[in-house]
């Protein structure tokens, strides 16, 4: 049985076939989080994108679960090299075959991640790069970007008694508006001290000095 769409298609094309792609195929989307955040800030976005794309999100050095020999080095050059090393492992190199063998790559960065994404793209080392999307990016180097956050950092609590308190603060301060997103992402940004209190994993105030 055919419909009007099939009739129009047949007028201009010789054949039409339905192609079903498994989840995870499609463009490579690289998600770079902002300063002080973690890859889990992309949790709700990833849940949608992964249906049609291969999504890559990782914690920058000094953030989340990433540990290096110098977690305090948040210089833009270091972050660019870190990102390129990760992408070398997760995105296959470009080949000389048909286009479908070279999935498109799109970089999406928030704040510091946006500034980082632009510089990563400028290296020319990302296979089949098709575009860069920046969200709330602050111009300048990574360190300069952090300095613009001074007023915000001064207003946020330096420690919390519990994860529940931190989540409550994030929601009511307007830092995060989605309850599910805040419950997933905020705990990953904190570390627990010996007295049981919680502080931010990444000391952005010190990094900005």
TrEMBL record:
<dbReference type="GO" id="GO:0051723">
    <property type="term" value="F:protein methylesterase activity"/>
</dbReference>
<dbReference type="InterPro" id="IPR000073">
    <property type="entry name" value="AB_hydrolase_1"/>
</dbReference>
<dbReference type="InterPro" id="IPR016812">
    <property type="entry name" value="PPase_methylesterase_euk"/>
</dbReference>
<feature type="domain" description="AB hydrolase-1">
    <location>
        <begin position="29"/>
        <end position="157"/>
    </location>
</feature>
<keyword id="KW-0719">Serine esterase</keyword>
<dbReference type="InterPro" id="IPR029058">
    <property type="entry name" value="AB_hydrolase_fold"/>
</dbReference>
<comment type="similarity">
    <text>Belongs to the AB hydrolase superfamily.</text>
</comment>
<keyword id="KW-0378">Hydrolase</keyword>
<dbReference type="Pfam" id="PF12697">
    <property type="entry name" value="Abhydrolase_6"/>
</dbReference>
<protein>
    <recommendedName>
        <fullName>protein phosphatase methylesterase-1</fullName>
        <ecNumber>3.1.1.89</ecNumber>
    </recommendedName>
</protein>
């Amino acid at each position: 049985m055919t419909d009007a769409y099939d009739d129009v298609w047949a007028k201009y094309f010789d054949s039409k076939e339905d192609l079903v792609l498994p989840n995870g195929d499609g463009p490579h989307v690289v998600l770079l989080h902002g300063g002080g955040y973690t890859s889990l800030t992309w949790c709700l976005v990833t849940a949608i994108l992964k249906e049609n794309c291969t999504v890559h999100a990782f914690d920058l050095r000094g953030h989340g679960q990433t540990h290096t020999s110098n977690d305090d080095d948040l210089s833009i050059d270091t972050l660019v090299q870190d990102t390129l090393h990760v992408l070398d492992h997760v995105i296959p190199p470009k080949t000389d075959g048909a286009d479908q063998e070279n999935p498109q790559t799109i970089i999406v960065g928030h704040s510091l991640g946006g500034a980082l994404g632009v510089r990563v793209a400028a290296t020319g080392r990302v296979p089949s790069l098709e575009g860069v999307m920046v969200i709330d990016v602050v111009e300048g180097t990574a360190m300069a970007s952090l300095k613009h956050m001074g007023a915000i950092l001064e207003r946020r609590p330096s420690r919390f008694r519990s994860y529940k308190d931190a989540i409550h603060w994030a929601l009511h301060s307007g830092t995060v508006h989605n309850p599910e997103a805040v419950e997933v992402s905020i705990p990953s940004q904190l570390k627990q001290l010996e007295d049981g209190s919680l502080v931010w994993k990444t000391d952005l105030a010190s990094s900005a000095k």
